[in-house]
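Last lecture ended with a question: if I hand you only a sequence, what can you say about the shape of the protein? Today we answer it with a concrete record. The protein is Antibiotic biosynthesis monooxygenase. Below, first the input exactly as provided, then the predicted structure, then a couple of comments.
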Amino acid sequence: MIVVNRFRVPHTQQQQFRDDLQAARATLAARPGHLHSRIGRNADDPELWVLTTEWESVGAYRRSLSAYDVKLTAVPVLSRAIDEPSAYEVVEPGTDLNISRMRSTDPRSLG
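The predicted structure:
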């Protein structure tokens, strides 16, 4: 699975944000199931940053977010992300895709 988190960061906050984002990336990279991650900054709009991470599975990513060190280091940074869907399934030739439907976050709907 691929997770794409985009951030809008004012110029005056960029150095601190970069340091915080690098620490968040390192913390996530230490979690089981993490495959790869990258930090980027938009070439045309330098206030737009991105953190992409790749995971063995949705479960590995979700479990990583519940780890204590991730809650302390990465979650505060990730909470600054632009509010948009961020988790993507990998699409390769011949693979089955998830059913295209909205998913509820209400635990009562898991029935």
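Comments.
1. Residues 14 and 47 are 8 Å apart (CA to CA).
2. The chain has a mean pLDDT of 90.
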